[in-house]
Amino acid sequence: MKISEEKKYERLSPFELKNKLISMAQSNSERMMLNAGRVNPNWIAVEPREAFFQLGLFAMDESKRHELRPGFGSPAEKKGLVTRFNAFVKKNAKKSGVSFLKKAVVYAHKELKMEPAEFISEIVDAMLGDHYPTPDRILEFNEKAVHPYLMKEILGDKRYGKFDLFATEGGTAAMAYIFNSLMENKILRKGDTIALGTPIFTPYIEIPHLNDYKFVTINVEQDEKKGWQYPDKEIKKLENPKIKAFFLVHPSNPTSVSIQPESFKKIANLVKNKRKDLIILTDDVYGTFVNGFKSLAAAAPHNTILVYSFSKYFGATGWRLGVIAIHEKNILDQKIAKLSARDKAILNKRYSTVALYPEKLKFIERMVADSRAVALHHTSGVSTPQQVVMTLFSIFCLLDKKGVYKKRAQDILLKRFKTLYKGIGIPCPKDPYGTHYYTIIDIPKLAQKRYSKSFATYLVKTFEPIDFVVRLAQERAVVLLDGGGFDAPNMSIRISLANLPDAAYENIGKSISWLLEQYYKHWKSNPSTSPQASHKASPGTAGRSAARTRSLQ
Question: What is the pTM for the complete model shown?
């Protein structure tokens, strides 16, 4: 790729650039492509899925008991349903998933306080998917299962009170709904200042600058030297009253670490004592990969909008399963209550078709309406079979008292993490707060450590920031994401440890090491291109002639 092309592609999101890299990797090499830019895990949680499909077979048997016409089933009959379910379980006891399905019904009865007749009837009806989701925000049985799951895995315990939940089509839909409803309800307005915990998942960088929002953004930056934690001086930025909201991914993406207890407490104290009005939006999808994880919703429960997706932990990106959690007593509802009479009148008119007393409509309920442009509120909600899956995933982990599944998922990532660093030929970082789902390799820093500071300076001044990932794709058929697109250091690379076989990560590590060596050999054989010999150039911008770029190929 020529330097002019690289400059063009640097304007793209890393996820859009990835498509070009894939094309290059496929067309420029006979090797098997290794795409570690994807976030899709290559594992799936088997047992709850098996239970789901067994439940589907039972639900279909129930529907066919009273066929309306040949090939036309009917809704399941509630009378005698528990007896027939127990007979199904007994008859199919040795089939995969049936045992867990039975355990799920027992757990729902004993722990979630749902009578078997009620629970079985609801999940069978939801499984058939023959009704609109009711309630539309989240089905009752699903909320009863997901709430304790979030308390256990994401908030750490049960002392924070009740959170209202909104089931969404994955974490990305949750983000879109939240941004939209914060604006529609005058909680945030165009031109407002928000803070971003950076580096961060690229859409959080891109969305605020769209015409719909035009937010002013302030970065609260993690410190690479301190294990990608938020230093005190960065946390202190949140004291600025102009900052209306703080958006972060926790554990972070792409740096893949959770906030250490000391910083966690400082953010909690800041909200409690200095910024009681601060809105926190925390995307906690990777929280389950860290032992003892606690969401910022535990630090500031009344200020926080919590987003969680089932996609990564359960290998369920294709299912599109997410949830928004907001404490039943929250500052969002308080902010709406304090709006001007004119703003209240506008909002009351907006929601007048969905509530008799729209002024009493909670923010999370407004989000449900907004998700379908209000006028289509009556058809809102995540599909009912999807909500059955969410319930089964939640109960699966709630039953796993010893955390066997968690340990195995963590072990998969840790093994790949160690294999990657072994392939690169550098010590494997040790961080108890790391998820190991991703890792960031700072190429200039690696260049300085392995060769020299002069060589590292040469890299930064001579090549485009995406040059390293471009060459990996062209010459080694390895696809990684550009870390700079996440506000990580320029010419850093983000590697997903989730989506490839274990052995692939040694090849990726060796490819990174090999390519760095090629840059070094080129520098040593062309001393005239060293920073000292070339014209003045600012880091990452000048001295990148097309001829020089091509000469390394």
Answer: 0.90
